[in-house]
Design a protein that fits this description.
2 copies of one chain form a homodimer.
Chain A (H helix, E strand, L loop, with lengths): L9 H12 L6 E7 L10 E2 L3 H9 L5 H9 L5 H8 L6 E4 L5 E2 L6 E6 H6 L1 H25 L3 E4 L10 H11 L8 H7 L9 H5 L4 H11 L5 E3 L5 H18 L6 E4 L4 H14 L6 E5 L4 H9 L6 E4 L1 H4 L12 E7 L2 E2 L17 E6 L5 E7 L10 E4 L2 E7 L5 E4 L2 E5 L2 E2 L6 H14 L14 E4 L1 H28 L1
Parallel strand pairs in A: 6-10, 7-8, 8-9, 9-10, 14-20
Antiparallel strand pairs in A: 1-5, 1-11, 2-4, 3-5, 3-18, 11-12, 13-14, 13-17, 15-16, 18-19
Helix pairs in contact in A: 2-6, 3-4, 6-7, 6-13, 10-11, 11-12
Chain lengths: 485, 485
């Protein structure tokens, strides 16, 4: 699918035009992409969307029609339009692989290149990474809550888009969901597709049993019957058992039943007993109806007998604390070797200046202990003081015995992807493995243990130095303003 | 943009294959699209997404590559794949025009055609209509809260997609938003595009004043300056005033300033005074930072001096009660002339059977009074009993003096659109006009007055007749089940 370069905010173009006027387009710039709070007030996020983001960068070019449209806006000079005609992304991208566990405050993707190219791709990168990371995290939370049960994705009809459902299915797979109802996601990404029938199928026949028999006859190897159109336990499950017997007589097995309304805990327990008593312990129970990680968790605790959780709306729209959006931002951190910083009244919104590397500290047995955001090449060492990014008064010394790895690696150089593309299965394995390596309590759905992310001594010193410079400047301005009053 | 027919749930295809096996594909079917609760717990919704939905229907066809993919799934017979090769939508669609005020419980779009075509388009229609109606409604609420202020849309980077932002910009325009940062939406839909610079622009220069001057020099007629990078009142606004003076000396006017953080009420009031005192009452103030209708309303009440509200995240992801999704559903209501009904334990989930027409009752001066869902051709008359759709014990007689109009009209016949396409401006005018025609209190943001939507006497009788039939059937089944135990 082509990702138009016009799928961007106008200000990326007006800034580019301004940089061209000022002769600044070729200045060397670094931008960091990060988010300020973990999604869903949880303890972690699952990084996703990198491969589509790199595809966007590699194929970035304006069509003649797009340039004609930009000309009609009356904002841009012919020289700028010509500049766009040959515009490409030729920079460097650093990021961890998809499926990696990441945390608020640390750069999850960095772009180095000319000011023009590195600035322009802001909106495109944010659009792709924000949503996919949000979905992958939601999916991982649901899979964790299902505690061994299978989670499949049915959210297309409520996804934002039209093609939000496509990104949803991809990112949900990175987060551990196994299968989607979305057929295009199956074709594009090789995701296993799942689905059987809607209530309208049952209603299209003279009665429920006839509708079940017709479906089983068309799909003898893969039938899951929707049993709640009229009366789940009174007619749906008994009819499903009748059809299961008929299938078995012909050498096939009914695969499952689906319950889409009512008290899923009660109904799944009753249905399980009825199926077992009738000799069908292998028929699986699919439950759906506005499920999310909290409901799955509570149903598990109440003894639900659901084997497969069909999740739709709340995965696709990423509902929950935080309101459906990952607040990923993309900030200039260095220009022509000069580190830059955005100060804010809110210390949490002041950025970390300069190029950086995230180091992940692990125990001898590989469990995650803490992350430190460092300046390039800086090696965390025992005894080093590190700082809370939001409150520099909170500082601790690093203990001994930590193994340090580097979170990001170069994934694009000179606008060309480095190395091959990973499969979604590899990413899903990674997210599953890494969530299990978190310190105890970080995977909790609410009020999780807070994973420690710190700022290194050298980075903290740089930040303080720049803040002092800005304070000097604004003091001067305030004085000037006072004189005018 | 092509909308692949594979952007659908697998079960639409398995059901189609089943209908083909059963020889049912050509049965004449009617489906209704409706939602069960108004979005955001509000008093109304703005219908949007019809033109893209009709475009999807008109162009529905499978490519050879898509058919090859479906073959590889191992689910479908060669006969079914051949059936899909010539599959088109040739049915009828009935709907109100976009921008129409609609309510929970009433059909907002109906599809009549062969069972195959009418069933298959379920997911595609829901994906398009659900999100666009949700956005248009959110936009209308924000525009209402802004009470004469302008609202523009900046949500692309947080939209779901990648191209959710494109639908967002379109639907927001239907709801009354005037302008978007999304350049592709400008090209595709002729929406005015808006935007100036990001914090990174300011940070890319040695100091703020230099950055402001550079921007004003590149765009002397359309400059809006972002004043909150370091210190809104201490440096941002004073520097903007300096640049406004310099622009005026050259015969231009600064268009505005933008504040993106902090206490927008306080800052906008202070900035307004500073700008006015300096002789720039025409410089407008743009406010942004996670705004929604509730914040806009509260800021208005507190004396905010913001002229233009930039809304992003909360519009694009439709945050608020309801969690980012319109629960639109698509239900079979008639097959081969036989009305169908889905019963549910929850009376609110029992559907209304058969083909229907929504009649809107208006006062002599055109204000909306109430809607009645009727059987085809049924004319509401004074004294007729009408019923609450969720509680048939609640019934009233229709008063005299009501003018009745028909909400929907035929917008597609034999798979071809009827009449020309409306402009987004016409739709926006309609939504604005119709919100103003609502009974007092229906437009309230929280706890609104509930607009009356009733079921006609004839439709209620049909519903009760079918429910009695189903109760008979399930009683028989329950007896059968009892005997097995």
């Amino acid at each position: 699918m082509r990702y138009s370069p016009l799928l961007t905010d106008l200000y990326e173009l007006t800034m580019l035009a301004g940089y061209l006027e000022e002769g600044m387009t070729e200045q060397h710039a670094t931008f960091d992409l990060f988010f300020r709070t973990n999604p869903y007030e949880g303890g972690y996020a699952i990084f996703a969307g990198l491969a589509p983001a790199l595809e966007y960068l590699e194929n970035l070019r304006f069509t003649p029609e797009e340039l004609v449209y930009l000309t009609t806006l009356g904002l841009f000079t012919p020289r700028f339009i010509e500049f766009l005609r040959d515009f490409r992304f030729r920079g460097r991208v650093t990021a961890p692989p998809e499926g990696t566990v990441v945390f608020a405050g640390e750069p999850i993707l960095s772009v180095e290149g000319s000011l023009a190219e590195a600035q322009f791709v802001e909106t495109g990168l944010l659009t792709i990474i924000n949503y996919q990371t949000l979905v992958a995290t939601k999916a991982a939370r649901m899979v964790h809550a299902a505690a061994g049960g299978t989670v499949v994705e049915f959210g297309l009809r409520r996804a934002h888009g039209p093609n939000g459902g496509l990104s949803c299915a991809r990112a949900a797979t990175v987060g551990g969901v196994r299968g989607s109802s979305n057929v295009l996601a199956g074709m594009e990404y090789g995701i296993p597709v799942r689905g059987t029938q809607a209530h309208s199928w049952v209603m299209a026949f003279p009665d429920e049993l006839t509708s079940f028999r017709a479906y089983a006859s068309a799909f003898p190897d893969s039938t899951i019957l929707l049993v709640d159109t009229w009366d789940t336990l009174g007619s749906g499950v008994p009819h499903a058992i009748t059809v299961a017997r008929e299938l078995r007589e012909r050498g096939n097995e009914l695969q499952g039943i689906r319950i889409d309304s009512g008290d899923l805990v009660y109904l799944s327990r009753q249905a399980r007993t009825m199926l077992d008593d009738a000799g069908f312990p292998g028929v699986r129970i699919v439950g759906s109806n506005d499920l999310d990680e909290y409901l799955i968790d509570s149903m598990k605790n109440e003894g639900s007998r659901i084997d497969i959780y069909g999740v739709g709306t709340r995965l696709a729209v990423c509902s929950g604390p935080g309101g459906g959006a990952l607040g990923g931002v993309y900030k200039l951190t260095e220009l022509e070797g000069r580190p830059t910083l955005k100060r804010s009244e809110d210390p949490a919104k002041s950025t970390l200046p300069g190029r950086k590397e995230v180091r992940r500290g692990m125990s001898a047995d590989g469990r995650f202990l803490q992350d430190v955001i460092c300046t390039p090449g800086e090696e965390p060492a025992p005894g080093d003081t590190v700082y809370d990014p939001y409150n520099p008064l909170r500082q601790v010394a690093l203990p001994a015995g930590i193994r340090w790895s580097r979170l990001g690696k170069t994934v694009m150089e000179d606008g060309v992807r480095c190395g091959g593309e990973e499969s979604l299965e590899v990413m899903a394995d990674r997210s599953h493995r890494e969530v299990a390596l978190l310190p105890e309590g970080c995977e909790r759905l609410t009020n999780p243990h807070r994973y420690k992310v710190s700022v290194s001594k050298r980075l903290q010193a740089l930040r303080e130095e720049l803040l002092a410079q800005i304070n000097n400047q604004t003091t001067i301005h305030r004085d000037g303003q006072d004189k005018q009053e």
